[in-house]
Amino acid sequence: MRLDIVSIFPDYLAPLSLSLPGKAIESGLVDLRVHDLRRWTHDRHRTVDDTPYGGGAGMVMKPEPWGEALDELVPDAPVPDAPVPDAPVPAQLGRDDELQGNQAPDDRSQDDRALVGAPRLLVMTPSGRPFTQALAGELALERHLVIACGRYEGIDARVVEHARARMRVDEISIGDYVLNGGEAAALVITEAFVRLIPGVIGNPESLAEESHSAGHDGLLEYPVYTKPPSWRGLQVPDILFSGHHGEIARWRREQAVEKTRARRPDLLPAELREIIVGEATSS
Ligand code: SAM
């Protein structure tokens, strides 16, 4: 995968050279290119922001540097009337897509589907689509992602409008709060999708039972333990020493359901929610 990240603080992205993303870059699975947006400015002060039309506090990122950056990073984006190829199958569909009956790529517009395989622009914004494990799984299969990190009051709205005509665009939020800039959001989503790129994690089975993964019904993960068996008076549950794989799997499933019910009932699969509600009303 080629991954371009554009920011006015490129040093903010330095942690991507560490840990798993770093290994993915070293091994060639990810070709990371971090760019300083100011490279596409032409004035002495390398200006990237200006006052908002209509008044109000704060500054807005100017469209020209973003337009030139995207022209250079995505020079040969196909036009929207290109043929529609088969939708790719995402590695890690998550619970939200299943609940909505979506296979992740199928909920895209016709124009979006026409651009499958084309570069995909991810614009970090608190007003974007919420980032999920399902979306991470989808991004892990892309060939070329460009991440735009906003600052100030955000990017002039025409940049996204213009980009939509020539590439797939997702405006993405990592949560219902406001950061100072998109760099931290870019780090978060990159870490989430890079670990799902086939080959990045040595044992892909370790992804299957994680919290939010489709293979685990979108449940939160069961509690995990390691040595020693007794620590500060707390014991590892006996079942985990039993050697009965079926029993252990059943116990883990129960723990996962219970944890999800207690912490995030909104994540429970519909059939489990019905059983739990039924049990509560009959008791
Ligand atoms: N005025 C904007 C608003 O109210 O929607 C907030 C701008 S914020 C101060 C500056 C930049 O931080 C945004 O352009 C975006 O790139 C990034 N950002 C802030 N919160 C974010 C979030 N929850 N998810 C993704 N990006 C975020």
Please render the helix and strand layout as text:
Layout: E1 2-7, H1 19-26, E2 31-36, E3 49-50, E4 60-61, H2 63-73, H3 95-99, H4 110-114, E5 120-130, H5 133-139, E6 144-148, H6 158-164, E7 168-173, H7 183-194, H8 205-208, E8 230-231, E9 234-235, H9 245-263, H10 270-282
Parallel strand pairs: 1-2, 1-6, 5-6, 5-7
Antiparallel strand pairs: 3-4, 8-9
Helix pairs in contact: 2-6, 5-7
Biased composition (Pro residues): 77-88
Protein name: tRNA (guanine-N(1)-)-methyltransferase
Keywords: Cytoplasm, Methyltransferase, S-adenosyl-L-methionine, Transferase, tRNA processing
Looking at this protein, list some descriptive labels.
283 residues, alpha/beta, Alpha/beta knot, Trp Operon Repressor, Chain A, 2 domains, five-stranded parallel sheet, two-stranded antiparallel sheet, 10 helices, 32% helix, binds S-adenosylmethionine, transferase
Can you characterise this structure?
The protein has helices at 19-26, 63-73, 95-99, 110-114, 133-139, 158-164, 183-194, 205-208, 245-263, 270-282, and strands at residues 2-7, 31-36, 49-50, 60-61, 120-130, 144-148, 168-173, 230-231, 234-235. The protein has 283 residues and is α/β, with parallel strands linked by helices. It has two domains: 2-194, 3-Layer(aba) Sandwich (Alpha/beta knot); 219-282, tRNA(m1g37)methyltransferase, domain 2 (Trp Operon Repressor, Chain A), CATH 1.10.1270. The strands form three sheets. It has a five-stranded parallel β-sheet. Helix 2 runs parallel beside helix 6 (158-164). It starts with a strand and ends with a helix. S-adenosylmethionine (SAM) is lined by residues 124-127, 149-151, 153-154, 173-175, 177-182, 185. The site of S-adenosylmethionine has 19 residues, from strand 5. Specifically methylates guanosine-37 in various tRNAs.
